Amino acid sequence: MKKYAEGAAAFLLLVVAGSVSAVGKTSADDGIPALLKFAEQQQVVAPAPSVAEKAPSASPPVAAKPKPVIEPRGDAARLSALNQTLRQQAEVIQQQADTVRRLERLLAVQATVPPPTEPAAVDIRPLAAALKGIRRAIAPPPDLLAMAASLARQQRIAGEQKQRLQQLSRQLAQMQLPPTLVSDADKQAYAAGVSLGRDIVQLQEQNRQLGIEADRVRLLAGIADTLNGKPRLDNAAIDGALQAADRALQQAHRQRQQTLQQDGKAYLADFAVRPGVQQDALGFYYRVDYAGSGKIAAGDNVSIVVRESLPDGTVIKDMELAGTTISLPLAQYPPLFRAAIGKLDKHGSITLAVPPELAYGDKGSPPAIPPGATMIYTLRVADVLPPDKDRQK
């Protein structure tokens, strides 16, 4: 169809080529077909036909292609009718060519559209494996569940202990209320409690020196429960706990004694080499700080002031600071002090470094003096009186 339309248009152009050249050259190309321009020029130069001539020139629809009626009225009239017919035929041919081109484009578009294909089957196995892995990843591990259960159990135990502690605190607060001490029976009961408390304090201090510290809240709870007749441990458990505590105490005693002996020996060795230090026949070391003047007779009454301390500098007793003295006949002093006084004259002073066996021994003097302690004494003769003027301060 396209080739046919293009051939017809070419044929019509060849038919009118001669007439176009006779009229003259056209103007510059402005997009209007030359055939149409030629027809318009002819219409301008040709004389207007009469009314009678216009009726035969009206043509039916383009598709009928009627032949122009040639009137014997000259070449100009015939040429005008021919140009009009050619223009109409050219319009029809142009419309048919446009239709052909549209159809060709439509066919080309349809040719490029791929034919429908069957949908490919989807393999969901990778997706199922991925979901399974996600479930495993977000599932809590067994260890975490066990830890959560253990934590919940510990929290429950802590809550119970907190409640028990609050109860004991309330009981202790009630026990701490000051009781009335009106009757003799009240005073006697209170005095017994004081005596018991002193024993407990002394024991605690001894244990503290050995590195053993008893919890005071539980200690008081044990006393209160015993007095109320409601101990929370049976006799077997109590005996086992006391035996374990005694073993720990003995072990602490041995360790403490060994430490004190080592420290005491080190102190004695250091003191022995200091200037002016000598060793007595009893075994202690001494240094006369001031010899004094005036001999002390064996039967005199001697007043002395003593400062007692440990090798680490801990002061046990300081009679000088307290402003007190002790006065005894020289023969009544312990051998250690009698030997020390014998090295002085009146108002003299001396420093002693005494090993444990000449002092408090392995038992010590709790709570201040631990077992096996080396003792340091500073002794000053405050006064000396003859036997007939005995006095004590």
Which segments are poorly predicted (pLDDT under 50) over 5 or more consecutive residues?
1-28, 30-40, 42-65, 68-72
Q: Strand portion, in percent? A: 5-15%
Which value, in Å, is the CA radius of gyration?
A: 68 Å
**Principal-axes shape call:** elongated
Report the major sheet.
Answer: 7 strands, antiparallel
How many strands appear in the DSSP assignment? Answer: 7
Short synopsis of the structure:
This protein has helices at residues 2-15, 17-23, 34-45, 51-57, 75-112, 125-138, 142-175, 184-209, 216-227, 235-272, 319-322, 335-341, and strands at 278-279, 285-290, 301-309, 315-318, 326-329, 349-354, 375-385.
Detail the topology: elements first, then pairings:
Blueprint: H1 2-15, H2 17-23, H3 34-45, H4 51-57, H5 75-112, H6 125-138, H7 142-175, H8 184-209, H9 216-227, H10 235-272, E1 278-279, E2 285-290, E3 301-309, E4 315-318, H11 319-322, E5 326-329, H12 335-341, E6 349-354, E7 375-385
Antiparallel strand pairs: 1-2, 2-6, 3-4, 3-5, 3-7, 6-7
Helix pairs in contact: 1-5, 3-5
Describe this structure in words.
Helices cover 54% and strands 11% of the residues. By secondary structure, the protein is an alpha+beta fold. Strands 1, 2, 3, 4, 5, 6 and 7 form a seven-stranded antiparallel beta sheet that branches. The chain is elongated and about 195 Å long.
